Amino acid sequence: MKILVIGYEAEAKYSGVFRDNFCSALDHAGLSYDVASPGQSLLNFPNYDLYIGAGDELLRRLPEQVALIKSMGGVAIDIRTKKMPNKPKTWVQSIFMARNYQVDYVLTHMPDSRKRCLYIGQGLNEKLLYPEHDEMFTIFVDHYMPGRSAKVQRILDQCKRMAENRHNIRIWYQNSQGIVENVFQEDKSQYKPIPFSQLSAYYRKTHVFLPTHRETQGIVAAEVGMCGGITLLEPWMYPKKTLENIPHHFYQKNIVWPDTVHIEANMKFTRSHYGMDVFAQRIKAALDSIAAEAL
Predict the structure, then answer these.
(1) CB neighbours of residue 185 within 10 Å
(2) N or C: which end of the chain has fewer CB within 10 A?
(3) What domains sit in the chain, N to C, each tagged with a CATH number?
(4) Torsion of Cα atoms, 101 then 61 then 280 then 197, to 10°
(5) What confidence tens digit (pLDDT) does each residue in 175-220 have?
């Protein structure tokens, strides 16, 4: 099967990072492919069997491209958290979208029983995500996110008390300035995106990751877990499926700090779910299934 991957290059955005991880998985699976950016005309890429939008609902946002793919005889495949968008307005728009604007298949990060949905999960960059801890006990606090029930200040207050009562500790917090150290005041401005090659250097030293808001996937926790860290969170913050695949402990408002962080065990467990080999296996199985049915 001849595959075209459509995706963004921006390293500081989720879509760009995911496109690179998806292409790495295709390499691991021994599948050949070409890459196009969403800004390029697909008329310059005829005669492909599978056209895959490798981003955050990328082809749902580009219905004209989907129609063009179908007119060229290709199969349009989108990658999403689940088949239907979370926002009610977008969900309704998707339902009533003309058939020729709707993709043929959806590869999902979360299990979805709807027709023509195939679960692939996530795969993460093992070349950038590995343990690199030093003598400092390191806590990483996630950024503020509007509309997601963020509890940043409550978490920062507890981190401050922790820092006052323990030696050899540092707290990193992502805010509008980037990654700041031992700053305990919530910043509700737009957080500063950081290229993943730089951001991963912080994850490699992180012992404890603290989410601050409700997540749809929870990829940062998995990235920290790939480096051997553990996530401490309230149960409502992360999806159940993510929690099954990452090292974590729950707390209720008051953080319960661990006595020990088991770096090797955390890394091994997380890689069994997010390692590139297992991600490649899931993708190949999904694409083989699509090819058998549609080609």
Answers:
(1) 12
(2) C
(3) 3-123+275-294 (3.40.50.2000), 137-273 (3.40.50.2000)
(4) 160
(5) 999 999 999 999 999 999 999 999 999 999 999 999 999 998 999 9
